[in-house]
Amino acid sequence: MGAIDSRDMTSISREVVRVFEGAWGIDEPIELIGNVENCVYRVGDGFVARATENHRRGVGELRAELDWITFLAQRGLPVASPIRSHNGVAIEVGLGNELAICLFERAPGEAFDQDRHWTAVR
To answer: 3-state DSSP call for residue 20?
Structure first.
């Protein structure tokens, strides 16, 4: 499946904002910056959020991914570390368990610029 249908984006984005305000206490501007397999949001200046539909990846798979990222961060690797909600979990659900919503610190570094960082295969 491709990107989430644009008809659904408004309800998904509203739900993401509602969950952030309640579970993380986030009251920062939230901007949709990507929509392919996940909806990805810039949250203020220091965070990135992700909403994943449960038919794409299950909560168990997402939890394993976040455990791996946390493991890497604890060993000093520059990754976008997950941030636990006020409920003490790294994944909150929304839209009646249809969405898995995560919040991450923005990773250090700069945005990828294909013209600058990509070289053609020779």
So the answer is: helix
